[in-house]
Amino acid sequence: MTTIGTSRRQISIRDDLAGLAPYTAASALDGVVHRLNNNESPYPPPTDVVSSMLAELKQALENSHRYPDTTVTGLRESLARYVGHGIQPAEVWAGNGSNEVLLQLLLAYGGPGRRVLGFTPDFGMHRQLAAITGTEWHDGMRADDFTLTPQHARSVIADVRPDIIMVSNPNNPTGMPLPPDTIEQLVGAARDSIVVIDEAYHEFARTRSVVPRIHEHPNLVVARTLSKAFALAGVRIGYIVAAEARIHDVRMMSLPYPVSSLAAATAKVALTHAPRLLERIPAILDERDWLRVELESRGLRTADSDANFLLFTGMTCSESLFEDLAAAKIAIRNVGPAGWLRVSIGTPADNRAFLAVLDRANPTSASFTDPEERDDDHR
């Protein structure tokens, strides 16, 4: 047998993506019992809201032989009503989670030869989205206490001259809010940049949204999600709010039919029942504040959180505690910065199971070391 074309060029991933790891997170498939790693709502939607969703899903399924609305008109109308502040449906765009919509935004305004600026620690997907789209990433870095001052932000913006700036508020992974003055000065100093304020945890926050500033700042984009406070992480609906011209540009980057009929139907019902779905937030915040006191009473230090999670440090070895929790089927996140861990607020049972492992491990003691060293001690 004669083989034709035996010499073939090896096709490999783009050079600039070499070493980039896929996004992963522990789930129930890994045997996890207490999921405190993804900042999900610890509670499912109330049964009466689920019943309303099922009624809408039945109708959507009966029409599932047809493609969904490629303009997502009905969902955008529902989102605009929920957001308020005079926002119109044409100023909203939705997709399969806010990450997908932010990817579309970077496809529109980023790419080779363009720059995106972030201030870490911040949401790690911002940097990953820059890499995927071939956009040059610049890290403005926050202070050691994770704060971001207007003076520092203005200085870095003037130096980098970015095309896009991405900042989460409240911050992920710290949970810390940005003062309104910082956001105002950041947007004002970046008149030649697209400024993305990622408000994934807005519903948990004490600080006001910057959505009302959309009509004053055509360079401002606000990203949000229904995954967290609305308890719809599995439905995958995220959205941005921006000037109509921005939405037009982002829509050009979207593949056809960006939201399934089933997801859109579920989300529209959820938005109709927003007060009902959001009424559990005070209980989650009470648990967060209680857990913060408990952690600090054990000699640990926490960042000030305006979200449904806590970032904490003070362990002799953070990796060892992470492994002890995993062995107890408790998933949290080791997302950096070094020596810090992030725990989502779960049910009271979840939170107490987490503390029970801390008490057994005694992670602030001088003898608390990494697992291999402890194994050596036992031999």
Automatic annotation (TrEMBL):
<keyword id="KW-0028">Amino-acid biosynthesis</keyword>
<keyword id="KW-0663">Pyridoxal phosphate</keyword>
<dbReference type="InterPro" id="IPR004839">
    <property type="entry name" value="Aminotransferase_I/II_large"/>
</dbReference>
<dbReference type="InterPro" id="IPR015424">
    <property type="entry name" value="PyrdxlP-dep_Trfase"/>
</dbReference>
<keyword id="KW-0032">Aminotransferase</keyword>
<feature type="modified residue" description="N6-(pyridoxal phosphate)lysine">
    <location>
        <position position="228"/>
    </location>
</feature>
<dbReference type="InterPro" id="IPR001917">
    <property type="entry name" value="Aminotrans_II_pyridoxalP_BS"/>
</dbReference>
<comment type="similarity">
    <text>Belongs to the class-II pyridoxal-phosphate-dependent aminotransferase family. Histidinol-phosphate aminotransferase subfamily.</text>
</comment>
<feature type="domain" description="Aminotransferase class I/classII large">
    <location>
        <begin position="35"/>
        <end position="357"/>
    </location>
</feature>
<protein>
    <recommendedName>
        <fullName>Histidinol-phosphate aminotransferase</fullName>
        <ecNumber>2.6.1.9</ecNumber>
    </recommendedName>
</protein>
<keyword id="KW-0808">Transferase</keyword>
<dbReference type="InterPro" id="IPR015422">
    <property type="entry name" value="PyrdxlP-dep_Trfase_small"/>
</dbReference>
<comment type="pathway">
    <text>Amino-acid biosynthesis; L-histidine biosynthesis; L-histidine from 5-phospho-alpha-D-ribose 1-diphosphate: step 7/9.</text>
</comment>
<dbReference type="GO" id="GO:0004400">
    <property type="term" value="F:histidinol-phosphate transaminase activity"/>
</dbReference>
<keyword id="KW-0368">Histidine biosynthesis</keyword>
<dbReference type="InterPro" id="IPR015421">
    <property type="entry name" value="PyrdxlP-dep_Trfase_major"/>
</dbReference>
<dbReference type="InterPro" id="IPR005861">
    <property type="entry name" value="HisP_aminotrans"/>
</dbReference>
<dbReference type="Pfam" id="PF00155">
    <property type="entry name" value="Aminotran_1_2"/>
</dbReference>
<comment type="subunit">
    <text>Homodimer.</text>
</comment>
